[in-house]
Each structure stands twice: as C-alpha cells, then as structure tokens.
Write a structure and sequence with these properties.
- Two copies of one chain form a homodimer.
- With 354 residues, chain A is α/β, with parallel strands linked by helices.
- In chain A, 44% of the residues lie in helices and 19% in strands.
- Chain A is built from twelve helices and eleven strands.
- In chain A, strands 4-3-5-6 form a four-stranded parallel β-sheet. A three-stranded mixed β-sheet of chain A has the order 1-2-9, with helices on one face. A two-stranded antiparallel ribbon of chain A has the order 7-8.
- In chain A, α2 crosses α3 and α4 runs parallel beside α5.
- The first copy, chain A, starts with a strand and ends with a helix.
- Chains A and B meet through α2, β7 and β8 of A and α2, β7 and β8 of B.
Chain lengths: 354, 354
C-alpha cells in the first residue's frame, strides 16, 4: 500500500492524501454525514456496493447518483441533472460527493461539487489507470461543450483520493492499456523509467510492479502540480500529446478514448520535435502505440483537426502552442509554426493512412 | 466621482477598484485586447454603444453577447449559450468579459467568466442601484436551477467595477426603488444612517446625495466582504431578509423582483426579531415597504414558502438559519425554531392578505 500526499500552497491552500492499494475502496471513510456517490453507471454495478458499505460503516448516509459512462457524462445537461438531484436530496454545505469512475466521472462530479452552493467537498475513487495517474490529482474539473473538450470548468481540489488497484482487473484490457498513456507520458517528462516500465513486460492489471508504477506515475503528477497549481507555467507540460488528442476526440465525437487519443497525440508531438531538430523520440512513441493498440483513426485531413487545435486552452491570441520534448525529461511549451504542424501531420498521416 | 477599493487577502488574492460616478460607462478601459460585452438585452439597446465605444477607444476588439433581461438570464441553458459563443469567437485565456446589466447579468456573466477555460478575467458595469451596492462587490457569481435560486455558482472576483449613476435615470422609478432595498439593508447592518438617507427625502435617481449614498452603501459591503470573502462568518449577515426573499422569488417564479422580495424579507426578519424579543424594527422595515411600493404578493401559506427556506444555502443539516437583528447594527446568524417562523409568518400574512 502506497500513500502519497498533495500539498498546494497557492492560491487556495489544499492538502490531501492519495491512497494506492489493492482493496482501497473498502477503506473509504469521510467525516461528512451526508454523501452522494456520483458513479459511472457501468462501474456502479460492479463497485458501488463496496464503496457504499465502507461509507456506511463509518456512519455516512449515502445516496447513489449514477451518470452516463465515460465522456458522455461531461455535459452541462448531466451537470444540471446532478445539481438538481443534490438540491432535491436537501444537500447543504456540509454534505459531500464521492466520485466513482474514470476521469470523466471525477471531472463531472468534481465540477458539480465545485458549483453546488459555490462549493462543497468531494472525494475521488478513480477506477481506471488513466484516472488514477492523471485526473485524480490536481483539481481540474469540468465538462465539454459542443465547441470542444474541457472548455468549461473550475479548479477544485478533492479532499482525498482512494485508488483501488483491484478494480483495474475488472476492466477490459484495452481500457487498462488506454490508461497507460499518461503513465508513459510521465516517463517522457522525467527520466524515462516509467516508459520502460510500460513497454518492457507487457504492462497489465496483474503486473507485479503495478502498485509501484502507479504510485511513481502519480508522484510525477503531484510534483508538477505542486510547482504550478493553476497551470500558469510548468503544469502545461502535462499536456504533452494533448493538443492533437483533444482534436481527435472532438473530431471522432469521443469515439476514440482519451488515453488512445493521447497515444496518437504523443506520437504527433514527437514528430513535431523531430521536425524541429530535437532528439528523435518517434521510435519510442511508436513503440507505445504498438503496445497500446489504439482504435483506428478515421481518415482525417490537416484541415479537419487544425481548427480544434487552434481552440486549445494553451492557445492564446498569438497562436497555437505545443508542448514539445527537446529530449526525455526536457519539455518545452512553444509556439509552433503552421508549416511545421502541417509537415508533422503529413508524416503522421503517412504512417496511419497509406 | 468616488473611487473605492476592494482588497481580499484570503484565500485568493484579489484587489480591484470600484468607480462610482455620473458618466463612468464612458471611461471604461481594460488591458485585454479581446473582450465580450455580456449585456442584458434591454440595457444593451440603451447603453452598450457607450460602453463599446469606450472599450474600442482604448484598443479592445469588442463583441456583443446579449442575454435575456434580468433573472431569466440565470439558467444553465443561457450559461451554455454564452460559453459556446465565447468558444466560437475563439476566446482564449487572455480574453475578457465585461458585464452590462443588473445583478442577474453580472451573476451570469461572472459565472461564465469563472467557468470558461476554468477562469478568465471579467469586469462589471452594474446598471441598477441593486447591482451597484450588492452584486458588483464580492465575487459571488452563479445561476439558478429549478430547485432554487443561486444554488449553483462560484466565487470569482471582477478585476474592476464601473458604476455609472446616470444610467439609473434611464430605468423605471420602480426599478430604482427596488434597488434601494440593499442600501436600506446596509443601513440596518451598520449605524442606520443609510436607512434614513433612503426614507427621508423620497430617495430617487436624481437625488443630490446619490453618489455619496451609493458609495457609502458599497463601502458597507466592501467592509463585510473583506472580513469574510468566502462567507464562513460575518458575510452571511448580508443575507438579512434574503431567506424569505429567495423563497418568494422561487414561489413567484421571479415575477417578484429581487429587491422587492428583499423588502418583504427584511420585514419578515424584523417580525422574527420581534417574536424573539429583540428591538422592534418592524416600523422601520414597514416604512421601507411604504417607500418601495413592491408588487403585491400572491396569497401564500407558510407551507408554500417553508420548503424553499429549508433549501437556503445558509441551512445546514441542523435546520434553517436566519439572520436576525438584535438592534440596528447588531446582526446575528441563528437557528430559528419552526414555531417562531410560523408565528412570524402569521403576523406577516395578517399585514398583507387580511
């Protein structure tokens, strides 16, 4: 069992533990007496009873609020439904939410907690590898709008996180490999060790080193978020691979899961780096795609994805900014010229559609 | 011309000026190069051109986004429309919003600014007396849901406020008197001077002392908000009269304007105080209603309004809490027993329906 700590000093003080272990779900306990579990409806069937029993054992009165599976939960409409439900349950400022599901569920649930009565406490039980090493740390919450992903939201820190590794065994292998994208990315942003851990042994939900790898990947995110809680600097590096990823998700209307989009996006970012004369990391990002086996992309032109990349949150009035890697462990946020993007796209397209 | 300053130290540092003067709208200038005016559609016809010209004179590129008049703007649906519009305009983190309208407009616009890309800057141009002395200070933003008013939102501080007193002359006299409720309330919470200012001379948009009264009323709010930015203590006193007010607004589906609901609500709170043996302020709150001349209430039973009061944000799992006044300048937040509420309601009903 690994226990990690997040401590944010600015601008909102926040300090919370992240528990990583097999069986963490059975150990969840919170001080609030009234709580709603906001759960992915598919995950709820399997795991809500364990969570509910743990909460009730410690005296909380529990309501179950299910939301659509995955990204379909992240709409203003679902948000409104959850908020209305909380009001109907008579929730007050001393009530709390516990989210149970992947990153989409905690994004939606966290945003609901942030918005209800201008903010109540929430706790996160991530049920995918992706959510464990990414969404559960850092307090980014929000929903999508038709114009793009994560364009609406708030920073709202959870009060604790319980990552139950046993839950990962109950998910499809493809979902596990999807989530490995962020772990791999955290390797690229540091010393590469996590990349090797993912690629070496056919990393899966029963891997012996799972707890160590997850804890290490979470720690990378904690370190970056602690340095820059509001993403005014280094935190943007976590967006490595995400600019194209968000565009691919939007274009495919979220048919392509986030982690697979990030898999493609990291490879595209590596191609940009190669065109800029940086260390060639394309063999590594390609090896990750070979491990991950993401769903096939529809045939896309540069003009299909560019408008979505231009709308990325990292964009400012000066143009599209990408996170690039000069080498492993040396990320950089930079404006990339349109012709470089187009060249990188040609190389990318040649790999996947010809 | 009066210039006031808000300085909040915790938890989010914020510092911003509030300009109160005749003609302030023509002096608006902001550093951002891209800006959307989020304007009440009725107010926009009269005053958006002045604001737009001022912003353009200082080099901002301006888009006008109109929203329904008054409380009808405060829905998740309108919020979604505004957010989509900002995305379509290609707004980025260095873009900004300026709200133009009453408190409902700045609540909605401020919440949109708080949510878009997890937060962009916004500025407030309040166009009603109510918004000037209340909504423009303190950073409370949000929308309503069918279950109740202001149940959803965020704390998001504006970067500056321009209160143009000339605008008040273009509004119906009833709207001005509606807004006097918060000014009167600020008098009750301090030394009573603002109460006298409102009651003495048939206070209106052409009153000589208007600038002084508005500035003083704003200062009362600033003092309280600076002591308690997140409403964990004293700030709740500003809710004097608001528990019944929110219920009346909900029951009448916002047919009764906020300031008039607060007028009734202050009288009800004074009746509660009388029943609790505090200084009898009911003659004063009644005199205010005689000045304000609010719209008639539909015939309501205690059981019509109680469920809405129980859902108030000040409520916790222990019951309904009211702000009461032991005497002028001595507010208190306390749990009020159901039978006291019911007795006060009987006295209230006897005045208005028999």
């Amino acid at each position: 069992m690994a226990e990690l700590h997040v401590q944010l000093n600015t601008p909102m003080r926040a300090e919370y533990p992240i528990h990583v272990s097999h069986g963490a779900l059975g150990m969840v306990h919170i001080p609030e007496s009234r709580v709603a579990i906001v759960a992915d409806e598919a995950v709820a069937l399997l795991h809500a009873p364990t969570l509910q029993a743990a909460l009730e054992k410690h005296g909380s009165q529990v309501h179950l609020v299910t939301v659509p599976t995955g990204e379909r939960a992240k709409t203003l409409e679902v948000l409104g439904n959850v908020l209305s439900r909380l009001a109907q349950l008579g929730f007050t400022r001393d009530s709390a939410l516990v989210t149970l599901g992947g990153g989409a569920t905690s994004d939606l649930g966290g945003y609901a907690a942030s918005s209800f009565l201008r903010g109540i406490r929430f706790y996160v039980c991530p049920t995918t590898l992706l959510a464990m090493v990414d969404a559960s740390v850092g307090g980014k919450t929000g929903v999508n709008i038709p114009e793009g992903k994560n364009l609406v939201g708030a920073f709202h820190q959870p009060s604790a996180v319980w990552a139950d590794l046993s839950v990962l065994e109950t998910l499809p292998a493809r979902t596990f490999r999807e989530g490995a994208a962020e772990t791999f990315k955290h390797g690229l942003l540091t010393d590469g060790a996590l990349c090797d851990a993912v690629l070496e042994a056919g990393f899966n939900a029963r891997s012996e080193k799972l707890e160590r790898v997850v804890a290490d990947a979470v720690q990378v995110k904690i370190d970056i978020v602690q340095r820059d809680p509001l993403e005014v600097g280094d935190r943007a590096f976590l967006n490595f691979g995400h600019t194209l990823a968000h565009a691919l998700e939007a274009v495919t209307q979220h048919q392509l899961p986030h982690g697979e989009a990030v898999g493609y996006g990291m490879h595209f970012a590596a191609l940009i780096g190669k065109h800029l004369g940086y260390e060639d990391l394309t063999a590594k990002t390609r090896a990750f795609l070979n491990y991950q086996k993401p769903g096939a992309l529809p045939h896309l032109e540069f003009s299909d994805v560019m408008p979505f990349m231009a709308r990325d949150k990292k964009a400012d009035s000066g143009g599209v900014r990408f996170v690039t890697l000069q080498r492993i462990g040396a990320p950089k946020l930079e404006r990339v010229a349109g012709n470089v993007l187009e060249e990188a796209w040609k190389a990318f397209a040649a790999e996947f559609w010809t």
